Amino acid sequence: MKKLLSVLAVSLLPLLPLTAAAHGAAALRFEKTVTIKAPAAKVWALVKDFANQQAWHEGVESTKVETKKDENGDDATYRTVKLKNGGTMFEKLRSADDAGMKLKYEYIYDKSTLQFSNFYPTISVTANGADTVVSVKGSYTRADSSNIPKPEQNDDAATKAINEFFDAGLNSLKKVAESGK
Amino acid sequence: MKATCVARHLCRTVQHATGQPKTVCIRLRRMWSLTLFGIDVANVYRHHFRVTAHWGLLMASLFTTPSWAGNLAYITNQGSNTVSVYDIQQRAITHTIAVGKAPVGVAIAPNTARIYISNANSQSISVIDAHTQQQIQEIPIHIQVVGITLSRDEHTLYAAAWDGQQVLAIPLSAPTRIKTIQAGMTPSGMVVSRDNQKLFIANRDSNDITVIDTHNLRTLARVSVGLHPFALTLSPDGQSLMVVNVVSNSLTVLNVDTYRARTYKTGQHPYGAVMSLDQRWIYVTNNHAESVSVIDAQSGQTVKTITVGEFPEGIDYDPTSQQLLVANWGADTISVIDARTWQVTQTVNSPSLCRAFGAFIYQPKALPASH
């Protein structure tokens, strides 16, 4: 009886509106590294160029940057990345640290098509002898933050989408950096 | 096993980085569990009676059962469905407790020695017995729960529905008789006022705080803060509510009666805050800057930035040892910071994606010294 009452009590909760801005309750962690046989300075020059992702990511068609006020009223740099498969990624530059060779940005799901959300990556470039280690690390959540997410917007879908993007990207970064150009 | 009783004075000189030295005495009273260790009851009674000659204290002491040395930090490991128990005096993890799926929030009931854990993915609350360090109950609540907090009498657990606009009030004596409270969008951090009259709810996606009357569960006020308020904490005197605004990179300090607010700058993406016992410093984890800001509570100036692990989230202050504990979600570590020197003194591994959202340090009953 108690159990019945509990089920009843919870099912009487009004249906809740979905909010696009809501984050998944349990964020996921993305981590990927690649070792490149090229000088770190060369790799960093490619990675930090926020307006030119097509120079190293084989899946990117074009990148357009703009400066506008962010939600806090501060000037910020945004980019619209057009993918060769027709997708779009809208991203905000957070910092490009030349001394530490770290690029931080934010993927803004509301104006993008890949099905993950709240993605705040840091791309770090670290010299390791003559080689360079590039790592991408960040938190992300599924696109549908509701209790029972749609299959194409659940945790697995988000993980798949983010992995596909960076598997291709880090492979081609390695190719480009290791080529003589 | 020998029956032993520990009743001692813990006196130490407190010296903040820029403060006046002060001597603080706390008498700690502890006894071994009678049932757990099968100790001769009469012996322990007599011994304790000699020490205290105080039946009230005697009875109270029967319910405290340390198998530990110091205060305990309960760290939720979202990625491994466990809670790490870190003994602050032993400086080591002494227990790892299996709980529900994706544990996030922590609420401590010092009087009943219970620890409540919110499990976001199993949509439940785990109840841990602090005597045995085991989960003794899992309460299904059918919401994606992140923030939880307790009423001061420890009778009611409040659980926020992350994907909705409600907070559940769960009577712990009858956990099926749940009442719902109207909150803003994406209610997250919560805390109950010292006098048990008000529940404060941070509404992450409506950028405000809902103040609830705990008697009738009605809204007393909605107070605007910065963008994406997430974690909440009270000052030790209970007069100020501190709210981290994740997107604004700021901290709102709100008077709990007048709701007058001051706003201080933090580092990038503040996720947690706690105030020192002397109320001079506010410590804020900067989730996207691998750091803790030390903010002067009077001036609002950041006086130091302490480097910790990646994606620091939960932070709490242990008044006994004056250590700060920080759960680093991205690094799978806990940073221990000495609040007197503002140096990281230890980095401890914690299984996976540790969060420790809420006040997570358990202080077994400490009695003020009689002199």
Tell me about the largest β-sheet of chain A: 7 strands, antiparallel
The assigned structural class of chain B equals mainly beta
Kindly state the percentage of residues in helix of chain A.
10-25%
User: What oligomeric state best describes the polypeptide chains here?
Assistant: heterodimer
Percent of residues of chain A in beta strands?
A: 35-45%
Under CATH at level 1, the class of chain A stands as Alpha Beta
The termini of chain A sit apart by 73 Å
Number of helices of chain A: 3
Contiguous runs where pLDDT drops below 50 for at least 5 residues of chain A: 7-22
Task: Give the integer mean of the pLDDT values of chain A.
Answer: 89
- Determine the CATH superfamily of chain A: START domain
Give the strand order of the largest sheet of chain A, numbering strands 1, 2, ... along the chain.
Answer: 1-7-6-5-4-3-2
The CATH topology of chain A: Alpha-D-Glucose-1,6-Bisphosphate, Chain A, domain 4
How many DSSP helices of chain B?
Answer: 3
Terminal Cα separation of chain B, in Å? 33 Å
Describe this structure in words.
The complex is a heterodimer of chains A (181) and B (371). Chain A has 3 helices and 7 strands. Chain A has 181 residues and is α+β, with helices and mostly antiparallel strands. Chain A has one domain (22-178): Alpha-D-Glucose-1,6-Bisphosphate, Chain A, domain 4. In chain A, strand 3 and strand 4 form a beta hairpin. Chain A starts with a helix and ends with a helix. In chain B, 6% of the residues lie in helices and 51% in strands. Chain B has helices at residues 34-37, 41-52, 55-61, and strands at 5-14, 22-31, 72-77, 82-87, 92-98, 103-109, 114-119, 124-129, 134-140, 145-150, 156-161, 166-171, 179-182, 187-192, 198-203, 208-213, 219-224, 229-234, 240-245, 250-255, 261-265, 270-275, 281-286, 291-296, 302-307, 312-318, 323-328, 333-338, 343-349, 361-362, 366-368. In chain B, strands 5-4-3-30 form a 4-stranded antiparallel β-sheet, with no helix packed on it. The longest helix of chain B is centred in the N-terminal third of the chain and has 12 residues, at 41-52. Chain B starts with a strand and ends with a strand. The model of chain B is unreliable at 1-66 and 366-371 (pLDDT under 50). The interface between A and B is medium-sized, with 28 and 41 residues.
